Amino acid sequence: MKSERLVRRVEQIHLGDDRYLDARAIEMEWFGGGADEAEEDFEDFDEMETLAILRFDVDTAEYAQLAKLGMVDSVPGGDDETDRSCRVSFRTDSDLLDDAEETLREEWEASLEESDEEPTIWNDLDYWELLSID
User: Fold this and answer.
1) pTM score, whole prediction
2) 73 neighbors 133 (Cβ within 8 angstroms)
3) How far is CA 69 from CA 16, 82, 99, 123, 125, in A?
């Protein structure tokens, strides 16, 4: 499966519960194929197979915010001195996207043209699950 990576700037990342991370660069990686692929090929795509990966950096305070929301491992109590800045990776698949799969694809294709339009799926963690913390 072919994958491509792009780096784009977003104004915010939606965490859920009306919480957001500030502007930053995100790395977008697409595995779902291009618009020129036959629709039947995409329909055969396994529901749980990763369609895309989203990566971005967080600082210690942002990591703690992600932990409060249950998106990453909890921060042990009383350990506020530890630097928890890191790079987090999230993945999505057809099951996580529900009806937003076409929007994800459209936003990817717009990003290929270096569109300045703010995405709605690529920066909304409601559609993603944690893959790794580096």
Assistant:
1) 0.85
2) yes
3) 8, 19, 24, 16, 11
Query: How many secondary structure helices (H) and strands (E) does the chain include?
Result: 4, 7
Question: Nearest to residue 30, comparing CAs of 49, 11, 14?
Answer: 49
Tokens of 91: 């993945």
Consecutive H or E run containing 15:
strand 13-16
Digitized pLDDT (tens) for each residue of the chain, 134 residues in all:
567 899 999 999 999 989 999 999 999 999 976 555 434 444 544 557 999 999 999 999 999 999 999 999 877 665 667 888 999 999 999 999 989 999 999 999 999 988 788 999 999 999 999 999 99
Q: What is the DSSP string of 58-95?
A: E-HHHHHHHHHTTSSPPPPTT-TTS---EEEEEEE-HH
